[in-house]
Amino acid sequence: MTYDYVARRLNINGIVQGVGFRPFVYQLASKYEIKGEVANTSSGVVIHIEGIRDNIESFCSDLAEKSPPLAHITETSIHPEIVKGFKDFSIAQSIGQAACSTLISPDVSICDDCLSELFDSNDRRFQYPFINCTNCGPRYTIISDIPYDRPKTSMKHFKMCKMCQDEYDDPGNRRFHAQPNACEECGPHVTLYDNSGKKLDARNPVEKTAELLKEGCIIAIKGLGGFHLAVDAENDDAVGMLRKRKHREEKPLAIMSCDIEHIRKYAYVQPEEEALLKSLHRPIVILKKKKPNSLSKDVSPRNRYFGSMLPYTPLHYMLLQYGFTALIMTSGNMSEEPICIDSEDAFKRLSEVADYFLVHNRDIYLRSDDSILKYTAGHTRFIRRSRGYIPVPVFLKKKVGQILACGGGLKSTVCLTKGNNAFISQHIGDLENQATYEFFQLTIKHMKRILDINPGIVAYDLHPDYLSTIYALEQQDVEKVPVQHHHAHIASCMAENRLDGPVIGLSFDGTGYGTDGSIWGGEILIVEDSEFKRAAHLSYVPMPGGEAAIKEPWRMAVSYLYDAFGKDFAGHNLPLFGQLDDSKVKFVVEMISKRVNSPFTSSLGRFFDGIAAIIGIRNTVFFEGQAAMELEMLADEKAKGIYNFEWSSGETHRIFLQPIISGVVNDMERGVHPSTISGKFHNTIIALFSELCEVIRKENGVSRVALSGGVFQNSIILSGLIKGLKQRGFQVITHTLVPANDGGISLGQAMIAAAVANK
């Protein structure tokens, strides 16, 4: 009996490096008695196989259906080859090529096998803080270039001992070709220092760190994508001191617990949230608080939620074994600065904050903050897309050219495109200082290199003062495409849902530079791929003091009240006026009436701020969106009724705010509880925009609505509008792959620039 003996060449693209893909191929070849070789290339993985035709076909089928959990194959091409007479199957040396188009795996949490070994006293890696294998550990943050091999990672400084090298070379071993493979003898190690840089003579630095945390100390801990600042979350004094030293007055602090059972002590965990917490990505998940709970009240003040996560590095697990309910694990930086990744830099920048430093000697090449997600309105939603998810691309409906999109000013990300892939960077932060701007530039440089993208088009926000815009305009020999902020929001939602226009876009946020020079943010747009039309917007009101009105919502309250009632607005019985100095109010009124430093805004985010101040919630904020967030937290979701609303006729509808303001003030003067007023206000926004979309559908014939912008982080508004619009027969498009906030607009900018280029 003769067998049909054939050869094939397989080119595999996707996330196929650093995820155990070659060992998987090797073992699959052994199973089907196939000869040949597999190698990493700069464009993915290439496989040459020789064997019986039926076995080859089975091999190809299993390759697609049974690949490792971290692998993501986006394209496979199979080509006939000449039989070369291979005697066995081997993993060949990586092949460098001119074109780099492989996809790099994100950093992922320690796997169950490594976790078991970490706490096995008979294992040679018992309590070793850098245990990993092909299925887990660092990836993106330690890569300097591709192909993904040890010499092109920060592990190049650590020569494997014989035992580690034997594991690395053994195709049957879980650590076969695991690039960060190491052990206590040959790999990185941790060291504990005080904040003067003096090394502590601690036999077990991790155990000593746990003791110091229990004593109330603040510890800067070098992790996977940067430093965390850690304290015991049950220690009021320690949490308060951390806030004071870090200058983070009220913004919620992230916490980490060793397992779901510990999280359940202080928060409710739904099944979808548990799955998210336990996923390999290990994000921070927004969870509803249990009351009472043992955590410090300063962990997440005036908020119904905690941001909690499970450990994702061996070091985290080792620390948390010492009996903490939860540790604060907040970004290792001063407020508004990028997180520290270098130990020397951390000592310089954090010595006034941290009492001690637990550091290691494995370099981090690119910082990456923890990702933040929330399960709401039936889906997982990103608030921040970073560690664990970057650099997995958004897969596009159409191929596009090589484009750089520079994002906005707040919650900055950049986006690079190539073929069907849009690579959005990790969270960069608010571009408001030199340190963050340098991180922004470094991120672009690093991504261009490891993705081999040389953009011929640069997209940027219309706002002339954004550092991202200034950067874009300084670039030479490229086509520059300006993109309106709210157009970019809707385009990002369309792109991740693989949709072409037209759509009705509800683009709601705090700030975005409009085509008329005003500050937009309460917009209904009709969006095509490269163009948009403004169908409706909130009426303009002055924003007294410009940026100052964002930090002091009482200014917006005065502006809305003045707009609704004129000069007699102060005659209304509101707690606001008892909390403010009369001279300050008069000064702001003068700014408004004389139009001094009072740009017009149509922002829905500012409207939320103004309502929050009018009903007595908050006059000043310590972080962006705080007043609107607390207005949502206060809302009685069982409240009935809505306030009156109306809009103008014509091609572009103006939504009048006076009826809503009048209704709110009337309820305040009647003694209605602020929680009821907040509930009615939310109901009003939902009803208003649901009804107005019906009008716009009749005028434009469009039945799809895309929701984007930071306001849609408000679960009441998001859920309510999805329900209200669907009841009216609309197809509703929302974000699940990128943030609705400004962290997603770089994707939209890139898509609009691509559409402009194709016109």
Automatic annotation (TrEMBL):
Catalytic reactions of this protein: an acyl phosphate + H2O = a carboxylate + phosphate + H(+); C-terminal L-cysteinyl-[HypE protein] + carbamoyl phosphate + ATP + H2O = C-terminal S-carboxamide-L-cysteinyl-[HypE protein] + AMP + phosphate + diphosphate + H(+)
GO molecular function: acylphosphatase activity; carboxyl- or carbamoyltransferase activity; double-stranded RNA binding; ligase activity; zinc ion binding
Pfam families in the cross-refs: Acylphosphatase (PF00708), HypF_C (PF17788), HypF_C_2 (PF22521), Sua5_yciO_yrdC (PF01300), zf-HYPF (PF07503)
Coiled-coil boundaries: none
The EC number(s) this enzyme carries: 6.2.-.-
Record domain Acylphosphatase-like: where: 7-93
Alphabetized Gene3D superfamilies for the sequence: 3.30.110.120, 3.30.420.360, 3.30.420.40, 3.90.870.50
Keywords: Hydrolase, Ligase, Metal-binding, Zinc, Zinc-finger
Domain YrdC-like: 203-388
Keyword flag Cell inner membrane: no
Family (UniProt): Belongs to the carbamoyltransferase HypF family.
Protein name as it appears in the record: Carbamoyltransferase
